Amino acid sequence: MSRVISSFSNPLIKNVLLLGEKPRARKEQNRIIIEGLREIRLAIASSFTLTDLFFTPEFVSDAELRSLVPSAGNVEVVEVTKEVFNRMAYRNDRDGLIALAEPKRLDFSDLKLRKTPLLLVLETVEKPGNLGALLRTADAANLDAVIICDPQTDIYNPNAIRSSIGCIFTMPVVTASSEETIAWMCQSGIRMFGTALTATQWYHETDFRQPAAIIMGSEANGLSSAWLEGAGELIKIPMMGKIDSMNVSASAAIVIFEAMRQRGFRMEV
Question: Is the domain of 94 the same as that of 127?
Fold first, then answer.
């Protein structure tokens, strides 16, 4: 039987609020927050370990709850009132489920690349919402992995999880320095295509049918000198209007799906 919590001052509830607000707390406790039925199911399907599951019966059915608990393993199930849930949740009255889970920290050695891999590399990504949108694009294209170099935000920020609609769990994500990533790419025979306004080569005239990585810089500063010098080729998207840049997630989608078009929307195993 699950217990019922109706007080905002309960230590468990206060800790969930702390984890939602403080990256340091998430790191120290080795916990992340997952909100929503779809996102929790994707985490379970990707073998993330759930430790706690909070629910309110006003929003989640018994059948939905029972479908999660056996798959979640040895998880503590806690019932909360509607008022307490809405205090915990970012999206009020949504699904009625919040889980705590252990994060995954992947290294390059954990990646299982296909014969002709296609990867997305993000340098110094700052905004959790952008990260989430980029992960959705990566999942839509079924990329081999996303590599985040020198991140300026917690990749398991609750807003990144929400905006990715759970794709943070479906995509292999590695964090590393730019130098480590460039060295690994060279050793792995992966061609690096950096996106830069200073490039002279158009993205749609570039051959992405080889093992390739598309490198995206920050919206504020673009690519660092390490990538401008380390990438094998620099490419750009034609800008036909009065500004010379787009949102990084939109730019990544354009280049990624050109690469997929060239590959016939197939990935070799």
Answer: no
Only one residue has tokens 């779809």, namely: 38
Looking at the fold, whether 247 and 138 belong to one and the same domain comes out as yes
CB 250 within 8 A of CB 203: no
Residue-wise pLDDT for 183-210, tens only, equals: 999 999 999 999 999 999 999 999 999 9
**CATH number for the domain including 128?**
3.40.1280.10
Domain-located, residue 31: yes
> How distant is the alpha carbon of residue 88 from its chain centre?
22
Please give the Cα distance from 254 to 235 (Å, whole number): 12
| Confidence tier at 94 by pLDDT (50, 70, 90) | low
133 & 149 share domain: yes
Residue 1 binned pLDDT confidence (cut-offs 50, 70, 90): very low
132 and 225 in a single domain? The answer is yes
**Same domain flag for 154 and 204:** yes
> Residue 269 falls within a domain, yes or no?
no
Q: Is 104 strand, coil or helix?
A: coil
CA triple 187-193-195, angle to 5 deg: 140
CA angle, 245 then 247 then 252, to 5°: 100
- Neighbour-count burial for 134-172, b at 16+ CB within 10 Å, e otherwise: bbbbbbebebbbbbbbbbebbbbbbbbbbbbbbbbbbbb
Q: Is residue 268 part of a domain?
A: no
How deeply is 268 buried, as exposed, middle or buried, from its count of CB atoms within 10 A (0-12, 13-18, 19+)?
Answer: exposed
Q: Around Cβ 31, how many Cβ atoms within 10 Å?
A: 19
In a domain, 191, yes or no: yes
139 and 215 in a single domain? The answer is: yes
Where helices occur in 165-236 by DSSP H, the ranges are: 167-170, 178-188, 225-230
